[in-house]
Amino acid sequence: MKRKGTGPDGLVIVDKPAGITSHGVVARTRRLAGTRRVGHAGTLDPMATGVLVLGVEKATRLLGHLALTEKAYDATIRLGRTTITDDAEGEVTETVPATGVTREAIDKGIAELTGDIQQVPSKISAIKIDGKRSYSRVRSGEEVELAARPVTVSSFTVHEVRVVAPADGTEVLDLDVTVECSSGTYIRALARDLGAGLGVGGHLTALRRTRVGPYTLGMAKSLDELEETFSYMPISEAAAAAFPRWDVDAEQARLLVNGVRLKVEGLGDGPIAVFGPEERFLALVEERTGQARILAVFV
Q1: Is 193 marked active-site?
Q2: pTM for the whole thing?
Q3: What is the pLDDT along the chain (299 residues), one digit of tens a residue?
Q4: Across the beta sheet with 245-247, what order do the strands follow?
Q5: Strand ranges in 44-148 using DSSP code E only, listed in sequence order
Q6: In whole angstroms, what is the distance from residue 139 CA to residue 135 CA?
Q7: Where are the alpha helices (DSSP H) in 233-299?
Q8: Residue 164: strand, helix, or coil
């Protein structure tokens, strides 16, 4: 049932199903929350499942600050197949038997893709080139070259290696992996680059996001569950989970929300969540030259 009036201020942590776009999830959440003011903190491909963080009403202003946090994924990489999209949804462009690839070679390839690396995003991505999405250019037959970007792969772990024989009979290897990485990392590109480095090609066959910053699958609700009972994480709880906390008194709170830069020391790096009396979430600030500079006010 559609909720009437203004939607709640908070985050909705969705366990996105396969086969629906992130924008489709946003559209359904708008209906459930009774407001059009819903945004997301990073999309998932239609093939992918897992944690999708949505902001409702005032919480949409948190999202830009959440998008730079670390993310975690469970994935399956297929070695021996190259596809135009770097995942299972694209046309296979090359097939190479992969059973000769050793675990030692796989581990070496994984190590080379771990840490601070330069990654060329998948051509079938939403990156804009002269105002037009890369995937639109590729689908219209254009040749696309994207520049490498710095990303951080904190952890890239192989849990299982399996021999698989698809319908054409050419044996390939499926790797079940877990990846922890910075925002902006393409897991499809990791699969592509691992396969390319091993000389057999590779693509992604399954992807499930298990964490975005502090928000995990354990906090997430399926769309069916949200249809039954719409639930959300209040904005104060969401801010407390994502950012360091600074508690201020009533006078400091009044000054801050009116744009006064208070003198501070030792707040630390990055956004700080400011809480006033009665646990009221007031703002995000950052420390600059001994002052608290407002990033966003939420009252």
Answers
A1: no
A2: 0.86
A3: 334 446 789 999 999 999 999 999 999 999 999 999 999 988 898 999 999 999 999 999 998 887 667 899 999 999 999 998 899 988 899 999 999 999 999 999 999 999 999 999 887 666 666 666 655 656 656 666 778 999 999 999 999 999 998 777 789 999 999 999 998 899 999 999 999 999 999 999 999 999 998 899 999 999 999 999 999 999 999 999 889 999 999 999 999 989 888 988 888 777 999 999 999 999 999 998 889 999 999 98
A4: 245-247, 272-275, 281-288, 291-297
A5: 49-56, 71-79, 81-83, 92-95, 115-119, 128-129, 132-133
A6: 6
A7: 235-242, 250-257
A8: strand
Domains, the chain: 10-68+214-233 (3.30.2350.10), 71-212 (3.30.2350.10), 243-297 (2.30.130.10)
Q: How far is CA 233 from CA 9, 127, 182, in A?
A: 8, 30, 24
**60 exposure class (CB count in 10 Å sphere: 0-12, 13-18, 19+):** middle
Collapsing DSSP to helix, strand or coil, 241 comes out as helix
- Residue among 15, 45, 74, 86 flagged as catalytic: 45
